[in-house]
Amino acid sequence: MAKKILAVLIVYGVMAVLLVPLLVTALFGGFREEAQTEAKAVYGLAEYYACRKAHLELEDYVLGVVSAEMPASFPLEALKAQAVAARTYEVRKMEEAGSAEVLYDVGQAYCTEAERREKWGENYEAYLEKMEEAVRQTAGEIMVYEEEPILAVFHAQSGGMTEDSENVWVQEIPYLRSVDSTGDQEAPGFETEVELTAEEVWEKLSAYGDLGVTAEELDFSGAVRSQAGYIQTIQAGNLTLEGQEIRTALGLRSTNFTVKRQGDAFIFKTKGYGHGAGMSQYGAKALAEEGMDYQEILRHYYTGISFENIA
Q1: Can you say how many angstroms the Cα of residue 204 is from the centroid of all Cα atoms in its chain?
Q2: What is the overall mean pLDDT for the chain?
Q3: Parallel, antiparallel or unpaired: strands 279-280 and 154-155
Q4: Is 276 in contact with 162 (CB distance < 8 Å)?
Q5: Which end of the chain is more exposed for a tag (fewer CB within 10 A), N or C?
Q6: Whole-angstrom Cα distance, residue 123 to residue 129?
Q7: What is the model's pTM?
């Protein structure tokens, strides 16, 4: 693999296998002096232990991400899918940053031990064991496309179909294609309704430019939607705005929405929660409940990917 970090981790993984007999000896009485000297000379124990520490830190980080990003009550196969997605996302970001150390601020939520205890309460032990099992059973596993870690984005729930990447971030990514995710329709909060005053909507959207109308005159028209149902552009007064601009300005759950005016207010009805690209977490839950394993779930949401193990 071309990327440096994966090559290094793979080499260290091989080193770990070769060093197992020496490590067992160390655990049960220590290295013989000559064996330790030879191992240091041939493999470099300092590098081995440094890499082992990096692997342990990565897996601990994945545990924190899965604990924060997905409910512990979800099926184990869904949690395993989330673990692989979180690990893949992090490894890609580490590569992009040229870092051999875990990055903690690259777009994924993270839950510390203290936060897990507070979040799970009396279920802490059972939930922790389940989360650890999801991470342990997928340890070192990442998704790749053309031998590179994928951009493993995910969201809470789609509007019934996931979204093509270019409709979210402009760039067309071959493994982030729109796929069916009808299981999301059974997710809590799949359809929500928000009422905002016309004055509030006018004020917030005016940040994007001159609407050309007053708050009393403001209305929406000409919505252009993607195949998956997400609004790409919509006319607000005399201003054409992107669906994502509307969502951000008004705090909507997704860009899959309808809007109508009622007197001095607007009623926004949304479907799903999140940007809609990549894996739907509630969709993964539904597929796991149907009997899919985590790799089948991931192959469903990330088109044409394969798996590698960097451990």
Answers
A1: 29
A2: 87
A3: parallel
A4: yes
A5: N
A6: 10
A7: 0.82
